[in-house]
Amino acid sequence: MAHLRLLRHNQNPSLLRFLSPFSSSSSSSSSSSSSSSSSSSGPIKPVGYPPKNESNVEQKQEQANERDSSSSEQATDFETPRGHQTRAPRTWTREDIRFVKDAPLITPVAYPTKVAPLPEDRKDEERDEGERKGDDQAQEQLMREARRIESNSRVRRNLYGFQEEEKLPYPTLIRVEKKPQKVAVDLMEAIREVKANSRRNFLETVEAHVNLGVDPRRGDQMVRGAITLPHGTGKTVRVAVFAEGAAAEEARAAGADVVGGDELIEQIRTGGGKLNFDKCIATLMFMPRLSKVARILGPRGLMPNPKLGSVTSDVSGAVKAAKCGRIDFKIDKTAIVHVGLGKVNFSEEVLRENIGAFVNALLVAKPVGLKKTSKYAGYVKNFTLSTTMGPGFPVTIQSLSSAADHYSKLQVK
Questions:
Q1: DSSP codes, 293-313
Q2: Residue 315 and residue 330: Cα distance in Å, rounded?
Q3: Residue 368: what pLDDT?
Q4: How far apart are CA 110 and CA 179, in angstroms?
Q5: CA–CA separation, 234 vs 341, rounded Å?
Q6: Which of 90, 221, 248, 301 meets the CB 3.0–4.6 Å disulfide criterion with 243?
Q7: Which residues, in sequence order, are bridge partners of residue 164?
Q8: Is the pTM higher than 0.70?
Q9: Which of these, 382, 381, 377, lies nearest to 393 by C-alpha position?
Q10: 21-32: buried (b, 16+ CB within 10 Å) or exposed (e) per residue?
Q11: Cβ atoms of 322 and 227 closer than 8 Å
Q12: What is the enclosing helix (H) or strand (E) of 384?
């Protein structure tokens, strides 16, 4: 009864109605106390709620039915696929209306698919943009230069007034015209052209320049040799011989220009680099002594070498060969051999024989490690004839081969 007293004291009608059944059992036992308390708290007023308007609910149900009927009519306009049956429109109840009456009609929306640009496309765009900017800058620079040149060429003040200068053409790039390469000709034709283009005041030397297909940095592909030309070089060769005793007498008899021993070595060492000879020949006993002047003779190509036949015991034969026109050849750093083969006043046949002898010696000096299918393929790239200060004329390999074969036949006979 305590909770009833508290509720009555607070006078909350809704809670009193909820708890009234629970208070019936104890009403008989506490009739006297409840009468005294009710008289003091006052009567309880019933609370009622307004009833629901049934007309509004029926109106909403009718609107939902109309909406369903319209949607079913629209659905029947489309063709139904085979094997499917059309469903009858659904009848909505009051409980269903509570959940779908305010739901909006959602129509499907299709958005265009977005494709991210590939890295290649970005590079092309950046490149095109960079080229466009570069072209604009170059055009702007050209226009600025044109305006500057035009403003400078208009009028220039002179002491006597204004003097108009002549208009100069706008500067343009001049393309360098490459000279056409000369076509290789026959050996005899090249000799005629070389002799015809010699117009100097001195007697020029006929030179041969051969480009070889070897590597000069490799020791097994070094090309060097010596050959005695059948008709000489046309030059007066001064020969020096390092010998003593009987070998010195043989050298003087053979026509050596300078003959000596230790006194000749001392003269070269203290002479300040001045030499009065073109070839050097030495005997075997003088090779250790020549180390004193090796730095003087070596750079000039005068140091005696056993491979070239300038270190020998047959002194007279070496002197005669040097006087008759013995030449030494060796490739340079660019794998090219330069050698003189005669004078311009030599006849065509004499020059042809000298060239044939040189080509034969060049084939003999071919490195063993250079493996090719033929004698010339991959070894002799090009062969050029020229004078000391004249133009060069390339020669065909076939004509060189025929000249070398002709010289070999003459040697056999």
A1: GHHHHTTTT-S--GGGT-B-S
A2: 23
A3: 81
A4: 69
A5: 9
A6: 248
A7: 155
A8: no
A9: 382
A10: eeeeeeeeeeee
A11: no
A12: strand 380-386
